[in-house]
Amino acid sequence: MCLLKPRLLPITRLAIKAVNRALSAMVCVILFLMGISLAFLPNLASNLLRIGMITAVSALCILAMNALALAVLEKLLPWPAAAALALPPSRWRMVLDSLKLCAVVVAGFALGLTHWSGFSLATQASELLLILLLWLVGIQLRNSGMALRQIILNRRGLLVALVVALSALAGGALAAMLLELPLTTGLALASAYGWYSLSGILMTDAFGPVIGSAAFFNDLLRELLAIMLIPLLIRRRRHTALGLCGATSMDFTLPVLQRSGGMEIVPAAIVQGFLLSLLAPVLIDLFSVHASG
Fold it and tell me: Using CA atoms, how far apart are residues 259 and 65, in angstroms rounded to an integer?
């Protein structure tokens, strides 16, 4: 993989490891605080039902629109089928890794039910941590090694990212209509492209714990489905298998894509993941500003 030259800031491998560890820790802390904030909601039972409804409808609409658009791309730009490859890494282990963050939210929620007065500061603390987290995400993306030339020349990665981005927004708009939510809320729900740790945090900050929790579970569901379906789709529907991963095709689901689809799919996966990861916080912030404006 080509590296960006010259580097704007020389960042050592040790520093990047420290950034990655800090990001993982901060994501857990902020999601824990999100769980606490959720426990302080009035009319808790009805709000939990609403979270489930928003999650189910938004996930169905977004993934359905993605699948339809990617099916059209399969017809217009066929991707040669892959040869038989090694078995992918353990899907159940990867599912459990994803569910660990879900457990963090549940743990925060359970502790928040004690309604200790100190927990009232959870929202303010998460906002401060959010600023630091976005700064660390910027460092991580800057050091990803993606050169502009690589992105422009990888037509498949660009096309899949574009199709996923636009069709997801169409799905978010449909979900907003069905759920009777503001259009900007539906579009923001669709804008994380599977990056659940970021969407839950940003959406909670912008729209409150109900929408934030729905965004988290919506994007978590996308990643879990990707892990389970990639090996089934990769031979006949490679664009769909890649597009289903969304922003996670650059990192978490990349090993599954590589083992199931071969090294040939890796450049497109990295390009798609990079572009959608770059786009996600920008779009969520954009729609959040319009929603509050």
Answer: 27
Rounded to 5°, the CA angle 89-85-274 comes to 60
Stated pTM of the model: 0.73
Q: Is 1 exposed, middle or buried, given 0-12, 13-18 or 19+ CB atoms closer than 10 A?
A: exposed
Is the distance from CB of 244 to CB of 272 less than 8 angstroms? Answer: no
Letter for the amino acid at 40? F
Q: What is the pLDDT of residues 129-167, one digit of tens each?
A: 767 766 776 666 566 555 556 666 778 889 999 999 999
**Residue 200: other Cβ atoms inside 10 A:** 30
Residue partners of 200: CB distance under 8 A and separation at least 6: 31, 34, 105, 212, 213, 215, 216, 219
Tokens of 77: 């730009």
- Quote the pLDDT of residue 4: 39
Q: What are phi and psi of 251, to 5 degrees?
A: -140, -80
Which residue bears the tokens 């457990």? Answer: 103
Q: How far apart are CA 150 and CA 270, in angstroms?
A: 10
What single letter denotes the amino acid at residue 126? S
Give the chain's residues under pLDDT 50.
1-9, 84
List all residues 6 or more positions away from 8 whose beta carbon is below 8 Å from its beta carbon: 142
